[in-house]
Amino acid sequence: MSLNSTPSADRVHIGIFGRRNSGKSSLINALTGQNLSIVSKTLGTTTDPVSKAMEILPLGAVVVIDTAGLDDTGTLGKMRIQKTYQVLNKTDIAVLVVDANVGMTEQDNNILDKIKAKNIPYIIAYNKADLLKNRPDLGENKIYVSSTTKENINKLKDLLASLVPQEKEQYPIISDKIKPNDFVVLVVPIDKAAPKGRLILPQQQTIRELLEAGATSIVCRETELEQTLKDIGKKPKVVITDSQAFKMVAKIVPKDILLTSFSILFARRKGNLKLAIDGAKKLNSLKNGDKILISEGCTHHRQCGDIGTQKLPALIRKFTGKDFEFEFSSGTEFPSELEKYSLVIHCGGCMLNEREMKYRIKCAMDKNIPITNYGIAIAYMNGILERSIEIFPELAK
């Protein structure tokens, strides 16, 4: 996969933090060699966090996130600062930009404490160093830079590259469960909710990984699945389905063929599959009137029959025979206070990077709130969860 085609969720996320006019935006422009961020002497030019997927050598594929100033003022300023702090939840490496002529301030120290508390690797970049007369020695992971003269910009890139996590505790999607020349059937419903003219990201990534593993991908809709299984002339190793077609697909696929879903595969890849399985089983103990949070990592136009806001609530009510209060979140708007919920049901998180997905899971764990995801909950309510995780015999250990 080329760097340009690397999904944002799989890129290293670099968060740029600092006070207004510390030179955050100009530093981003110097790092990238492009005018990506608006630079102005007017305070508060950057309001909401702005993300840009790109390549920075020698780092490779990254997402650079420019944030609002930590010293923003007023009611809107406080909201912008809150948004800035939320960026920490998806930040793999933090760069704290400090005006070298001012030094560390209370706001800088406050966010540095939070960066350290979240165990995020960080660099303190003392910007505008070209205006300094004297330069005291700096400690580890601190560097003088100048966005104007480009002084030490390449050294900053090298320092960033040295902080990229080398060990990714991220499972493959499916490649460790198949062999070269295996047949894998992917069931992709095409309905009103499907994006026009393309496959969604989990489907694209799964097909790509199967190609790299030397396996053969066979893609069909659920309506053609039965005939496809008859026509391919070889028993597939596994059938992977979209969650909403789980029940229909399970009836069609013979019991001697492994069956799972994209959501289950991504729960293992980015989260905690065992925790999600245990969370789905909590559906049995919910009481009338309990609040359930259904959360998505991306934002999209919701249509009639939307799985998150319509199909899931209807299935849960039918399965339990009870009525609940459902609340919904999408994109970056994941609630910070989860105490009022009895269960969190999350999407597969394909648009979230690993750090943010695990942050959301930890938020639920810290509050002892069970959490599961779409595919696992649907499989459980359709009585096929045990079958859908047979591909992971290690879960039985």
3D architecture notes:
The protein has 397 residues and is an alpha/beta fold. It has 3 domains: 3-162, P-loop containing nucleotide triphosphate hydrolases (Rossmann fold); 175-265, Rossmann fold; 271-381, Rossmann fold (3-Layer(aba) Sandwich). It has 13 helices and 14 strands. The protein has helices at 24-32, 74-87, 106-117, 153-162, 201-212, 225-231, 246-252, 262-270, 273-281, 307-320, 354-366, 374-381, 385-388; strands at residues 12-18, 50-56, 60-66, 93-99, 122-127, 142-144, 183-187, 216-220, 238-241, 258-261, 291-295, 325-329, 343-346, 371-373. The strands form 3 sheets. The chain has a 6-stranded mixed β-sheet with strand order 2-3-1-4-5-6, sandwiched between helices. Strands 8-7-9-10 form a 4-stranded parallel β-sheet, sandwiched between helices. A 4-stranded parallel β-sheet has the order 12-11-13-14, sandwiched between helices. Residues 37-46 have low confidence and may be disordered.
CATH architecture of the largest domain: 3-Layer(aba) Sandwich
**What is the N-to-C order of secondary-structure elements (H for helix, E for strand)?**
EHEEHEHEEHEHEHEHEHHEHEEHEHH
Strand order of the largest sheet: 2-3-1-4-5-6
Secondary-structure-derived class: alpha/beta
**CATH class label of the largest domain:** Alpha Beta
Radius of gyration: 24 Å
CATH homologous group name of the largest domain: P-loop containing nucleotide triphosphate hydrolases
Number of helices: 13
Shape estimate = globular
